[in-house]
Each structure stands twice: as C-alpha cells, then as structure tokens.
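Question thread 4412

I'm putting together a teaching handout and wanted feedback from people who do this every day. The idea is simple: show students a protein as raw sequence, then show them the structure tokens that encode its fold, then repeat with a second protein so they can compare. Below is the first pair exactly as I plan to print it.
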Amino acid sequence: MLKNKVISKIIYTVSVTGLFFVWSCTKLDTTNLGDDLIPAVDNINTFADTFDIVTTPGEFLIDTTKVRIDDYHALGVYTDPLLGTTVKADVLLQLKPTFFPFYFGTNQKDSIIGDGDSAVLCLAYTNQNWGDTSHDMNMKLQAYQLKSSQGVWWDSSSYYRPINFPQSYLNDSVVSNETLININTLSNTVKVGVVDTVTNQIRIKLTNDFKNKLFKTFNRDSSGVYNAYRSDSLFKSNLNGFVIKATSGNALVYIDLLDPRTRLELHYRKRAWIADSNRLATTEDTVYTNFTFNTSYYSGMSLSSHGNKITVSNRNLPSGGDILLQSNPGTYANLYIPRLEHFVQNDSNRIIHRAEIQVTQTLDDIRANNKIAPEYLYLDLIDSSIAGIPSRWKPIYHDLNPLSNYNPDNISYYYPYNEGVNFYYFGVGKKTKSTGQVYYNVNVSRYLQNLVTNKSKNYPMRLFVPHNLSYPQFDQYIYPYKNLIGKGAVKVGGGSSDPSCRMRMVVIYSKLK
C-alpha cells in the first residue's frame, strides 16, 4: 500500500512538473499558436503599448529590379488616377524553330503552296491583370522586330534580366498593325488552324511583308540552298527577337513566356512527300508550324532570351506624412521606432505576446476595387554597420518563418531559403475592412522579444512591395516573392498623417515577477 502511494506521488510530481514546463514553454511562445491565444490586456499582468513610427519615403533605382525567365512578364500601360503614376511595360522575347536546320512541314521534301498564309505572334495570358477594371479594358498592342546588331548582348543564358533596356533595342521595324484586345474576353475560345482551339492567348497578326520574309527571304537563297534556317546563329542574325508594346490602354496584363501558347505561328498549305511512292501528294493540307521559347541547349541552340522593359513616370510621392508603397520598380518607406530604445533597455524581464506594425490605407485612397493594393508587403532591416557601405539591408530576425533557424548574420544561412517566408505568420498579406479600407499587420513579435532579452540593436527598417528579394552583400542569389512585377500600389498613413491610419507598432506583453 505504501509502495503504491509513493509511486502515485512520484507520478503526480512528474506530471505537475511536466505540465509546468509545457505551460512555461507555451507561455514563452504564444505567438506561434495564433492571435486567439494572446491574453487579454488587464494592465495588471498583461499590458499593451503603442509606439509611434518615424517614416520617410524612398524610391528604388530602376536598374536594381530584375525578372527571371519563369516570371510572369508585364505588358501594357496603366496610369493610376489617384497617385498619378504611369507604369509602362514592354515584353521582349526570342522565338525560334524547334530544330536546325529547319524546314517547313514534316519532311524536308514537303512542298509549300504559295507564299504562306499568315504569321501570328501569340502570347500566353495568365489571367492576371492590374488596372482600371471599371472599363472594358481594351488595349492596343503592336509588335516590333529587335535589332540584329544587339545580338551579342541580347542572346545569352542569363536567368535574370534588368528592366532598364536601352532605348536602342526598341527602335526597329514595325512587324504588325495595331491589334485591339479586350482583356475581359481573352479567356474565350479561339479557333487555330483547321481543328485546334486555344484560350487565354493574345494573338497579334504580323504584316504580310514580314510573313513573306519568314516564308521566302529567310527560307532559301537564290540557288535554293537553306539560308537563315540552317543554324541558330544564322536565324538570330535575321530575326533576333520581338518587342511587344502597348500603344494605348489603362491596364497591365501578365504573360507566361514558358507556356506553349507563347509562340510564333506560321500558317501555310503544303503537299506532303510520300516516301513510298517517291512523289508529292495530290491533296493539300492546311497546317501551321510553331516557333517557341527555347529553354534548353541542344543541337547547337542557345537558350532563348527574354526581357521586360518597365518604366515609371509622373510618380509624385505623397505629402503630409503619407507613404506610397508601389510594387517594384517602385517605392519603399524607411521606418524607425525611437521608443524601442527605452522599452528594450528598461527591462529585459518581459514576455512579448504580440508585436505588430500596423499599416493602414489612407481614407482618400480607398478604391471600389482594392485589387489595386499590393497583395503582400515585406519588412527588412537597414544594416548600416557594414564598413564603408551605408545603405545595406538584411532580413529581419526570426519572424520571416518561426520554423526556420535562419540567421541574418550568417552568410551561409541568412534567409530561410528552404522554408521560405511564412506569409500567414509574418502577417504581410493584404486584409480589407468592411469599409473597403486595406490594412496590413506585420508580425515582429519574435524580433522584439530578441531585442528585449538580448538587448540587441534597434535597427531602422524598410517596408516595401517586392517582386523578388536580394541581399548582394551575402551572395548574388535572388529570392522570388509573391507579388507580380509592377502590380500594386497603395497610399498608407505614415508617422505624421491622419491618426486614424497612422503607422504604428502595437505591443502586448507581460512582466515576469
């Protein structure tokens, strides 16, 4: 009996001790478990404080923005009626035959009838757009041929392209008439050839003169020998690529270059060569051949190149303390929280249940359609401690992903590149109030706990809307982010604007006795 009592007491003691440790660990890590578990503020055990944020606006240098081959490329022109900003985006790409030496048809002896029927430049529409959706969203597009003289620089295997293409690339011959598209009808089914159909595709018919070059001038020389289609290098010297521009419209559409629907269609009629009979067929076939975006090296072919020339004009940064946050190539805000110095140094015996930077759209910027506001913000730290380099940034500690042990001071693992950013935990996703007002609550709870516990440095911060991220002081790697390039702009309260939308940090914490 006594033995059973001793065993029971041991089990009870171990259980209580275990529960205490579990409670303690949970108590110290409530921010991992959700906002609903944050204790109520009673100003006895749990407190709330609000810190003002000093904000200053800034603009990104346009040559620091790059796009990847597999990024969606923006096309169009959009002028924001409230912000006054005009974003213009041109798409550049190389489309090539799928093999060299190239010939039309399924057999080199097939015979083309006439000069070819048509040539159509096609772009795969991703069903993503940005702009004034209250109109029919009509847009006029025109295609140009890139200059052959730019071949050395243009044709390369670079995975990333800067968006500041020199104007000399774009001043070459027009190869299409203006094509009017309605963005809202691009998902409609379109017939291609005799039996094929396609949806979500922009189709730009090229001029007869250019079509004739593709079928005749490029195909054979005067002696009947294959010319421009003999090799990749010869083809590029005649057709180095295309530029597609918007000549009118008020929206951006997004193009997937790697989708098979991005192609150059060459429609023609032919008589097939019948090898068994050693003769041409008497019947005609109406067919088409595709030149596509080449993504691998084979048969002497180099990787197709790409580009997205994006310009921003008429950008006026708001006055009165407000901040414009616009997707790259866009703007950013510098943030500094002076009161954190006292909060951090005064008492390290605190548990931070929740710390968030509240970012709220200004009342004069509320739109009927808030798809215009960016989907995701991003916050990092301004690290001025690097000798001789005053303007460097690094990821914020801990809060990008609580399940990752990344360390912004470790050159080998400064970013959670395996796990990526936990957008839900980080709180950088767009939210909308019932009034239509957009807001973001950026979670910096772990970062602040680290400041309090370890008396770490109170860094200034940078808030912006990235398309991708890079920290060149560590390496040249570029991390993709969820925002499309050029998509999204919002005016938010800064540190000295309307109190109802002023940017601020709210902290909920407890003091340990």
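The second pair follows. I'd like the answer to focus on this one:
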Amino acid sequence: MAGPALLSLQNTTLTFGGTPLLEGADLSLSAGDRVCLVGRNGSGKSTLLKIAAGLVEADGGTRFLQPGTTLRYLPQEPDLTGFATTLAYVEAGLGPGDDPYRARYLLESLGLTGEENPASLSGGEQRRAALARVLAPSPDLLLLDEPTNHLDLPAIEWLENELSGLACALALISHDRRFLEKLTNTTVWIDRGRTLRLGQGFSAFEQWRDGLLEEEEKDLQKLDRKIVAEEHWVRYGVTARRKRNVRRMAELDALRKKKREHRRVQGQAKMEATEAEGSGSQVILAQTINKSFGDRPIVRDLSLRLMRGDRLGIVGPNGAGKTTLINMLTGNLAPDDGEVTLGTNLALVALDQRRAALDANRSVEETITEGRGDTVEVNGARRHVVGYLKDFLFTPLQVRQPVSALSGGERARLLLARALATPSNLMVLDEPTNDLDLETLDLLEELLADYKGTLIVVSHDRDFLDRICSSILMAEGDGKWIEYAGGYSDMVAQRGEGVKARAAEIKAKVRDEKPSAIEANRSISNKLSFKEKHLLDTLPEKVDAMGRDIEKLRTALAEPDLYTRDRARFDKISALLTKMEEERAKAEEEWLALEMKREELEG
C-alpha cells in the first residue's frame, strides 16, 4: 500500500483560449512512485507537471505538497542566464545540508567541466547542466519534462542508471519508450482533459489504453442505439401523441446533450510515403573509405554494401562523425581515400533533425507546396494541401500560419509531411523521433515498415532502432565502424555493451592538458558565427560546382592528341586542374571542420 502522498493534485482545471485543457485532472505521488505522464502532444502533460511544480496556477482544484519535501523540476528548456559558470548554476540548486562535491561529480559524469560559460552552451550541454542541478540535492520528489531531449545514447543510459539508484519519487514525461519501460511503475494517461491512472509501468500502458478506448466505443454505440429508440418513441408512441411525456422528453434531451459534449479522441495522423521508381539492387557501395579531421580519424578503412530494401541504423556518441559519414555515403562529401559508388536511379529524400530546412517566415502551406499553388502530389494523385496536412493533424487555420508559430512537435510533423510527399527510394532520417508523441511514432514505424525503398537512420531511440533497422553501423572509436546484424538490442548482445560516451575520454585527456590547451578545446563550445553558418549553407554547392569543373578539365585533358597538338593548352589545363583540386580539398576540409563543430554543438 502506498504511503502518504508527498504531492497531490485534485480536480485540477485549466482553460486556454476558451478550450478546456485540463478538466478534473488528478495526480498523486508517494514515496517509491515512478510515474510517467503520457498523452498526445498538446494534451496538457507539461502543463500538469508545471502545476505540480508550483510554476503554473490552475483555474480550479487543490495542490498539496507535504511540508519539508524537497522538490526539483526539470523544464524542457532550461534557463541558465545570470550564472558565470555551469558549476555556479548547479551549486545554486543545492540546499544548506547538501554535498557540494556531488555537483561537480554530476557535471563530470555528464561530460562537463563546470567551467563552461552558460551563454555559449549548446542545447545538449544546457540539458546536461540542468540535469546535474536537479539531481545534485538528492531530492525527495523529482519532476522531469523530456529529460532525454538532446542527449546521446551514453548519456541516456547513464541517466537511466542514475535515476534507478535514487530513492526519491519520480514523475517524468518522455517519448523514449525504452526509458519509460525501465524506470516507471505507474502510468498516468492524460486524455481529453482527464487523468486515468494505471498501477503498472509504461510497458503495460498501450494494451490497457486500447482496451479502454474499445470499451468507450462500445458505450457510444449503446448511447446511439438508445437515442434512436427514444426518438422512435417520441415520434410514434401512442402516449407521446397524446401528451408528450415530459420525463421521457427530458431524458432524450439529456442523452443528446451527453453525446454532444462527449470529447472524441483526437484524430490519428495518417502517413503514406510517395515512392519513386525502384532503384538498382545495389544502392551504396563504400570501398575502404577514410576521412580525418586534422589528426583525428572520423572514418577509417570502412567498407559497406547497402542493398535495395536494407534498413541501416547509424549509432554512436555525439561527435563520433555520424553526420559526416552520412554525407560521405550519399555522395555529398568525398572521402580522403577509397571510393563510394552510388547505385542507379536513386531518388533521395532527407529529414534533418535541426529543422534547418524550415523557413520560419514561410507559411505551412508554402513549405509543403514550395509556393506553387494550393495542391500537392502524393503517389501520383493531386491533393489539396489542407486535406493533406489534415492527415498530419494540422487544422485549416494552422495551414495559413507561419512556421514560427508551430511547436516542436508540429514542426517535426511538418518536416515529415514534406519529406513523405517527395518521391524517393532512399530515405535518410536524422533523429526522426524528436518531438513526436508516441502515437505518431507508432504510425511512422508502420509507414517505414511498408516502405519499399532503402533507409538510413540516425537515432538515439533504442526502441525505434529495434523496430525499424535490419542492421546497425556502430562507431567503435578512433574512426572504426562495425556493422552488426539486427536492431540495437541485437548489436548490444553481439558487442556485450551499448554505446560508450566519447565525452568521458575527452575529459580525461583535457584534465591532463595545460590551461591554454583546455581553452582551445573549450572553444568548440562557442556558437557558430554568422559566417560559419553561411559557409555551412554554401560550401556543399561550392564543392559540387568545383567537382563539375574538375570533371570538365579532366575530360579536356583526356583528348588523345592534345599534348602533341597544343602543348601550351595542355600545360595550362594541367596547372588549372591541380589548382582546382587543391581548392576543392581545402573547401572539403573546411566543410568537414564546420560539420564536426556543428555536431559537437548538437551534443
């Protein structure tokens, strides 16, 4: 039996813009509770957690926090302003009797030194510092909103182990199934403003939810039949014709009102991929390719064959070079050595986790149609953009809004809608699960299972990798990559361990270096400048243009009699070719350096 509640919310109500978000919602946390809050995007999970943390005041209901209880809350977007270092930020969350050493221990465990300037941190580094702050006091009650966002696999698994060892009560929101399954023993489902509690962890939730929805549908059908019967009596009953029985009429009115006021389950997203003609049987062939960044190898002696229909997952810690490897495999970046051969008739579509492909000032409609009318072609059929976006749970009003007005989950669905409307037989997905709710993830997994093309997936979601991938390409360190058959769990079984943090190795090295070298390493945390962002956008096209010019020069030199016919022209072309190849190599190195810096920042 559960002990007295450390925190309880009863009959919580909250309305935004005339629409009730929470209607009589309850939440109770006692010692030993490990509660996950689940529900669709926009159902009120984060709002309920903020009410529990005392940061948002509800319109109605009661909130009780046991006196003397230490509560810590992790928001989705931590605010580190006003602190000189990450250590100062974490130490500010300690209480009078807390151990100050724990603050530094947690920062180092999460790959930070404590000396970082919060103003120059990436999203992932901010999340790590915020986690250290809420964990440092060893609180009685911990409320975590999407704690795995921006974390790589080593950090996620470290966090799992750390939370498993804590004695505190826990309430968390996450889209990571494996994370929820390992940590929770209670599930609270927020559905149409109400809360339903299951005394089991997330692993039992989906079957329980489906059973409740089936029962609800049966009850609605019974209600429909009863309304029909009552209406028949009103119209044709003998008594009704004489005096219209007031009680029966009132009951019918109450039934109709109940049906009108019943909040239906929010619509399910519908997805279908627009598939191009089939590619050749061999999609990508990499033969002993190498790539280095300065003295650091990114890819070393990798040979890989990707056939039509393969589903390749690429995993490794942040900074391992996953994005660089994808650019090499898809022909956007040349290897230092070796060769990458692309198959015939390839139609590639890519989903970028940075949402960089979205113009915040364009409307949702323009983003899908590229400003060309109000229809989009999906699998050979013309569809109105409003109807198509409705499949992805966008309202007609949202279709006219700018992208800047969308939430993270809505932007994720918009990118999916655009990518899936583009004909493809090779799909590259970079962290496709970010900001998607669990139901949309289910649908995406079903779509990818039916996709006849080839997939390359980068993800930190272990459950997603298990469900989707036929093989895993794992970063083993020092530029070495090994392919394992099966999903992520199969890879772990074959290796004997999962992904290990690269950050820990770097930190051990940094501690032994001189202060000047530490500053040089720390400079990677600086934000990309405007010039660097511009170069990241323009260098790929510049490198491609150089490649085309180089091919023209090589073709000209290949003329059989050029040397004997026009020696001066031969020498001029040869010199120009050498110069162009050197310039392209420099541009590729600059591009690679910026990509590596961007990838470090995303960590």
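Top answer:
Good format. For the second protein you could add a caption like this: Residues 238-244, 503-526 have pLDDT under 50 and may be disordered. The domain at 282-496 is CATH 3.40.50.300 (Rossmann fold).
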